[in-house]
Amino acid sequence: ESGKDRHEVYEADMRARTAKRLGLEGDMRRAVERGCEEFVVRYQPLIDTATGRTSGLEALVRWEHPERGLVSPSDFIPLAEETGMIIAIGRRVLREACSRARDWSSLGPGGRGIEVSVNLSARQFRDPGLLEDVARVLGETGLRPGALTLEVTEGILTEDTPVVLATVQYLGLLGVKLAIDDFGTGYSSLAHVKRFPVDYLKIDRSIVSGIEEDPRDEAIVSAAITLAHALGERVVAEGVETEGQLARLRELGCEVAQGFHFSRPLDGEALAAWLDAGK
Ligand code: C2E
Ligand code: CA
Ligand code: CA
Ligand code: CA
């Protein structure tokens, strides 16, 4: 996830195995059977670099484990993926995020036009029930389809199986947006460009963090922005932690920034207060 790790698959696998050994799998099964209420959502503001205002939110899941406390996604998503429980958990996150975003869009002035992004892992994206879930959640929550962005990593899109192609096309018909997540960490970072138009390109924190000191990182960020703009995509910089990074990103034409410099992921109440304050 840091993007600097060259053993991602191995690591995810290791984590899944460790988690299992710790007995998390049984706990997860029980939590899912009880309706996924232990899986809670935090929201990190996405900031329009031109205005400094919040333009969107990224929904980030956490597991409120009854004994272990808050478990972070990197410690349980691999296991959830491996066991298929990510489908039920993801459905809960999607519903929660769309429902909250719908409520917040009427919170002025910060909430107006607010968009929400939801992460999908490979297994979720390939799930034949995904489209139905998305359509149902939009219908039931009343969230405008264009206010929902689904974030996927490039690897998912570059497997151009008929299922992936059809899913991308149908999501487009629904009016839902797509973002490429963690851009710059894959080994085929141009492959998606050939196949799929997306709305947002999210540049990974591992490159953004070096933008002030490392001319090579700056060159990569600059090239990614140029490429995205040429393709009609907007750019989100992840993991912005300093004013200097923000200033440089603004100069390079990056439209949206996200990171601890603005805010950590917030719970629903804190987020509502954030928007209410006009941020
Ligand atoms: P991601 O999609 O790349 O999400 C961004 C991660 O970076 C989040 O970690 C966020 O808290 C963290 N972050 C944001 N700004 C900064 C910053 O300025 N500095 C640093 N150091 N970190 C920052 P989190 O919430 O632990 O999520 C980790 C990963 O778990 C996510 O990476 C995503 O791949 C996955 N994930 C999170 N929620 C979901 C979900 O609902 N479904 C699925 N399938 N995956 C999820
Ligand atoms: Ca993401
Ligand atoms: Ca990301
Ligand atoms: Ca990342």
TrEMBL record:
Query: What positions does the domain EAL occupy?
Result: 21-279
Highest taxon of source? Bacteria
The shown range, given as first to last of full length, is: 304 to 582 of 582
Report what the protein is called. EAL domain-containing protein
